[in-house]
Automatic annotation (TrEMBL):
Coiled-coil region: none
Keywords: Endoplasmic reticulum, Heme, Iron, Membrane, Metal-binding, Microsome, Monooxygenase, Oxidoreductase
Name assigned to this protein: unspecific monooxygenase
Catalytic activity line of the entry: an organic molecule + reduced [NADPH--hemoprotein reductase] + O2 = an alcohol + oxidized [NADPH--hemoprotein reductase] + H2O + H(+)
Biological processes per GO annotation: organic acid metabolic process; xenobiotic metabolic process
The protein's enzyme class: oxidoreductase
Organism for this UniProt entry: Oryctolagus cuniculus (Rabbit)
Length: 416
C-alpha cells in the first residue's frame, strides 16, 4: 500500500544496486518480518545497525568461522549426508528433511560450534519449523498480510503459525546463548555466538545486545538453511527430469575426482560441465524472483524520476535470470547457457541469484560451496532413480511468493 519502484532488466538493476550502491542500500519493508526482527539482525536492518552487523560478519569471516576452515566443515557434513542417504537402502524417500539437515548443520557448526545427529529430536523439530516457515512466507495469505499489515493484529490465520515458529526458533537460540555465556573464554572464542558475546562486552553500541544476537543468529538460520536446502531439493528434481544431464555430471566426477576421495573446491575449476549445471539450476529455479526489497537511503533522481528517501525498491531477479537475449529459451533447462563452443564454463553478468552490490547475500560464498560439494558428493556415490517416468515429473514451483518452492517428490538413491 506504499509507493514502490520496480526495477526490471539488467541495466536498471546494475545501475541501482552496483553503480548507486550506497543510495540503494536501504532495506525495504516486509511487514511480517519487520514484526519479527524489529529492525535488528543482518537481513532486515538499516543504516547504523546494518553496518555494525555487517562488521560482525566480517569479523567472523576473518576468524575463519572458528579454527577450522569452512570447506572442512562442509566436506565433513557432505560425508555425513552420504552416510545418511545410504541408510535409505535404495528405497523410495522424500529428500526434504535430509537435504535440510546438511546446510543447517553447517550453520550450526559455525554458530554453536557443534553439529547435530540427523535423528536428534530437537534438531528435527527446529528443521520442521524452518521448513514450514519457508513455505508459509511464500503463501498467498502472507502476501496479503504484507500488503495489509493491520490484518495481522486482528485476524486469525497462518501468520500466527509463522510467528509461533519464529518464537520457537528464538527460544532454541536463546538456550544456546545462555550455555555459551557460562562457558565463554574471552581469549579463545569457538564460534559466532562467542565472538558476539565478546563484542557485547567490548562495545557500548546499542546494536550489540542479547536480542540483536538472537535475531542475527535466526537470520543466519533462515537465510543459510532453507535457501540452500530448497536449491538442493530442486537440483535433484531437475536431475531426475533430465537424466542425461545427471549422467554427464557423473562422468565428469568419475574423470576428475574418481571414487576414492571427497570432492573439494579446487575440483570445480576442472569441472566446467558440473559448474554450468549448478549455475543453470540456480538460474532456472529463480529462487527469490523479486529479491529481498531494498529502499533508497536518501532522496534521489534516477533516470529523470524523483524517488523520495525510504521508498521501497523491488529488483526483479527474474528479469535477468530469464532474459531472452542472454539466455535463449530461458524457460528451458539447458546447462549450455553457461558453456561456450569449446565446452568451457562461460560467465554471465546477468547471473545474480544472490543479488548484487552492497547488500549482496553475505552467505554467497558458503552457499556456492555447499551446492558444489553436496551435489558432487551425492552424485559421486549414488545414481538417482525416479519413481515415475522422467517426462511425467512436474517441476513447476508449488508456491512462488517470496521464494520458489519445488513440489514434493520421492526418489531412490541407488549406491554406485
Amino acid at each position: 500500500m506504499k509507493p514502490t519502484v520496480v526495477l526490471h532488466g539488467y541495466e536498471a538493476v546494475k545501475e541501482t544496486l552496483v553503480d548507486l550502491g550506497e543510495e540503494f542500500a536501504g532495506r525495504g519493508s516486509v511487514p511480517i518480518l519487520d514484526k519479527v526482527n524489529k529492525g535488528l539482525g543482518i537481513v532486515f536492518s538499516n543504516a547504523k545497525t546494518w553496518k555494525e552487523m555487517r562488521f560482525s560478519l566480517m569479523t567472523l569471516r576473518n576468524f575463519g568461522m572458528g579454527k577450522r576452515s569452512i570447506e572442512d566443515r562442509v566436506q565433513e557434513e557432505a560425508r555425513c549426508l552420504v552416510e545418511e542417504l545410504r541408510k535409505t537402502n535404495a528405497s523410495p524417500c522424500d529428500p526434504t528433511f535430509i537435504l535440510g539437515c546438511a546446510p543447517c548443520n553447517v550453520i550450526c557448526s559455525i554458530i554453536f560450534h557443534n553439529r547435530f545427529d540427523y535423528k536428534d529430536e530437537k534438531f528435527l523439530k527446529l528443521m520442521e519449523k524452518l521448513n514450514k516457515n519457508a513455505r508459509l512466507l511464500s503463501s498467498p495469505w502472507l502476501q496479503v498480510c504484507n500488503n495489509f499489515p493491520a490484518l495481522m493484529d486482528y485476524f486469525p490465520g497462518i501468520h500466527k503459525t509463522f510467528l509461533k515458529n519464529i518464537d520457537y526458533t528464538k527460544n532454541f537460540i536463546m538456550e544456546k546463548v545462555k550455555e555459551h555465556q557460562k562457558s565463554l573464554d574471552v581469549n579463545s572464542p569457538q564460534d559466532f555466538i562467542d565472538c558476539f558475546l565478546i563484542k557485547m562486552e567490548q562495545e557500548t553500541h546499542l546494536e550489540f545486545t542479547l536480542e540483536s544476537l538472537v535475531i542475527a543468529v535466526s537470520d543466519l538460520f533462515g537465510a543459510g538453511t532453507e535457501t540452500t536446502s530448497t536449491t538442493l531439493r530442486y537440483s535433484l528434481l531437475l536431475l531426475l527430469k533430465h537424466p542425461e544431464v545427471a549422467a554427464k555430471v557423473q562422468e565428469e566426477i568419475e574423470r576428475v575426482i574418481g571414487r576414492h576421495r571427497s570432492p573439494c573446491m579446487q575440483d570445480r575449476s576442472h569441472m566446467p560441465y558440473t559448474d554450468a549445471v549448478i549455475h543453470e539450476i540456480q538460474r532456472f529455479i529463480d529462487l527469490l524472483p523479486n529479491n529481498v526489497p531494498h529502499a533508497v537511503t536518501r532522496d534521489i533522481k534516477f533516470r529523470n524520476y524523483f524517488i523520495p528517501k525510504g521508498t521501497n525498491i523491488i529488483t526483479s531477479l527474474t528479469s535477468m535470470l530469464h532474459d531472452q537475449k542472454e539466455f535463449p529459451n530461458p524457460k528451458v533447462f539447458d546447462p549450455g547457457h553457461f558453456l561456450n563452443e569449446s565446452g568451457n564454463f562461460k560467465k554471465s553478468d546477468y547471473f545474480m541469484p544472490f543479488s548484487a552490490g552492497k547488500r549482496i547475500c553475505v552467505g554467497e560464498g558458503l552457499a556456492r560451496m555447499e551446492l558444489f560439494l553436496f551435489l558432487t558428493s551425492i552424485l559421486q556415490n549414488f545414481k538417482l532413480q525416479s519413481l515415475v517416468e522422467s517426462k511425467d515429473l512436474d517441476i513447476t514451483a508449488v508456491v512462488n511468493g517470496f521464494a520458489s518452492v519445488p513440489p514434493s517428490f520421492q526418489l531412490c538413491f541407488i549406491p554406485i
